[in-house]
Amino acid sequence: MTVQTTQDEVLAPPQEDLPAPPPVQDLPPLETSLTPRQVTFANKNSALVLTPPPETAPADIAAALGLREPSMVLLLLGEAEGLDDITEAYLQQLFSRGIARTAAITETLILDGGRHSGLMAMIGKGVADRGRKSQLIGVAPARKVTESADGTDREPLDPNHSHFVLTDGNEWGDATETMIRLAGAWGPTVPVITILVNGSDETKTQVIEAVRCNWSIIVLKGSDGLADRLAELRQNRSTFILDPDLAEIVSDGNLSIFSLGSAISAFERLLEKLTWPKENLSMETLELAWKTFAMYDANANRQQRSYGRSQTWALILGIVGTLLVLSQSQMELLGYALDESWSENALHIIILLIPISITFIIALGNRFNAGTKWILSRAGAESIKKEIYRYRAQAEIYSDNQTQDVSRELKLTRKIEAVSSKLMQTEVNTSAIKDYTGPVPPKYGAAEGDNGLDYLSPDRYLKLRLQDQMTYYRRKTVELEAQLHRLQWIIYLAGAAGTLLVAIDLELWIALTTTIATSLTTFLQYQKVEEKLMRYNQTATDLMNIHNWWLALSAEEQANPDNIDKLVGQTEMSIHAEHATWVQEMQDALAEMRAEQTKDESTLSTDHKVFAVKR
User: Fold this and answer.
1) Which backbone phi and psi does 47 adopt, to 5 degrees?
2) What is the DSSP letter of 308?
3) Which pLDDT band, with edges at 50, 70 and 90, does 613 fall under?
């Protein structure tokens, strides 16, 4: 006989005799109250214990326990199980000298799990060694801990804590919400710093909550577990992390990696730094950088004006001298020779004083060397500006993976120090550099709508730096082309005027048109207008190519830290290359000019040529 089966029967799993589920244990409701009770441990230490009702506001918990408003809250997460003896010894010193001592001095409140084991026992001993001056609060599920040994599997509370908050719940993770809320009870004015040692999956949930609260997290690298995993992912800049929780912590968390074995004083310094509001720290560093930029930029502008005035006056006096000599000669040719009179003597004196004045101006310019000071000060200012934008974009040496041992702020400070030191070894050191007292950033330093202090995401960097500079170079190419055409037309007209003067028998005046044409030609040569026009066009094109490359990337590729580094690095390199070329060209032009002017000093005549170089 054939047995027929249905499809449902084929797909159904075979029936087995499964054990009956264990009966649900009915636990008595937890007795809650906002009135704390005092307990005394075997070591004679006393603590206040509070078992608040669910959903009690953290401010009410703090008030019920009589907690003082701290200057900082330290949230201790993780465990010490499985660590070797050397690591445990180092952690004990770190907790005693690095955390407990700092907490005692700075009125810091410490939060942990409150149990007499692992890290919680370490910090308890550290606080006790410092005279129990700090508020040390343990937060734990009431049904998982005991105030004294009761023969159950409950863990005893640490006798060195000053306060305990016991919550409802049957698992250790049930106290996480209350712990996080209590840590933030004093609002944004009191910084919260999380310290992660080792750690498990349960700890990961607590760390995520700290990340979502935007709290600083110190990851103790070398303590194993979750801490080492986070340190590895953060420092290796993984582009994709399979675990979504780890991805959120690494991508969004304000993590500081501290290696076990480092000096305890370094940890204290890190705590001190993290208590400063991040935005104030960044603003203070950036304000100093902008002020240094503005100081050198102002000196460059002052030296440029001084140099420009001297060269302009030399040029004007040279042309005026030529004009006066030709006028005198023309009058003599026409039979209007002046008698020995006051007017003739005055004309002779003026003609004599003009070349003397030109020689004096040239000698003065060479002595004070305003042109070189202008160029070097400008180069220093632009180098600092480059570092400011790299810092604000947190790219290259200012990226997360390159600021684990040295902070961004310190790296920027060192860069500015290097630029300043190099600048002070040049002729700039012989000029008075005045302190900058204007707005920060200076109005000419940042793009319109940019306060110069905020972090620049890739999109904002693209708009406020790359596109702004690309627009600048495009605008300058239009101005340079107009200047080039205008000067060339004047040169052509001066040549045509010379031909006309020959035609109307005024050959004497050809010297004037020749002087003007030669002066403008030499100006173009020293100014290198054509080279500058080509250089600006090349830089604008380079920036446009970088811009187009970035827009062609997918959203995932734009989030890749390596591509962000490439965007910022190539942009700043293109701008810096243009500045470096300009500096070299101007130094060469000034050297040629000084040689020309020095040669002409001894043979100065009315057709003396002095040319101003203006950028």
Assistant:
1) -150, 155
2) H
3) very low
What local confidence, expressed as pLDDT, does residue 556 receive? 81
Higher pLDDT pick, 517 / 155: 155
Which residue type does 456 have? L
User: Rounded to whole angstroms, how far apart are CA atoms 581 and 261?
Assistant: 47
Half-sphere exposure of 57 (CA within 13 A, CB side): 5
Is pTM beyond 0.85? Reply is no
pLDDT at res. 163: 96
How many helices and strands (H and E) does the chain possess?
20, 11
Round to whole Å and give the CA distance between 496 and 516.
12
Sequence-ordered list of residues with C-beta below 8 angstroms from that of 269, at least 6 positions apart, any chain: none
Please state, in angstroms and as integers, the Cα–Cα distance from residue 615 to each residue in 523, 532, 533, 560, following that order. Answer: 12, 9, 12, 39
Which tens digits make up the pLDDT trace of 493-536? Answer: 887 887 787 777 777 777 777 777 777 776 666 667 788 889 99
Q: What angle do CA 72, 192, 411 make, to 5 degrees?
A: 95
CA 377: distance to chain centroid? Answer: 22
pLDDT of 545: 96
CATH topology of domain 33-275: Rossmann fold (3.40.50)
Distance CA 464, CA 263 (A): 41
Parallel, antiparallel, or unpaired: how do β-strands 46-51 and 254-259 relate? Answer: unpaired
Return the pLDDT at 149: 66
SS3 145: strand
Helix, strand, coil share of the chain (percent; to 5) = 60, 10, 30
What local confidence, expressed as pLDDT, does residue 261 receive? 86
Spatial distance between the Cα atoms of 38 and 2, rounded to a whole number of angstroms: 78
- What is the model's pLDDT at position 11? 39
In 3-state terms, what secondary structure has residue 64?
helix
Structure tokens at 293: 């930029």
Domain ranges in the chain with CATH number 3.40.50.450: 33-275
Residue 301 tokens read as 């502008």
- Exposure of 507 in the CB half-sphere (CA atoms within 13 A): 2
Residue with tokens 């080039």: 484
| CA end-to-end distance (rounded Å), the chain | 106
Beta bridge partners of 139: 165
Helix (H) or strand (E) holding 254: strand 254-259
Residue 538 vs residues 268, 569, 579: alpha-carbon distances, Å:
50, 17, 13
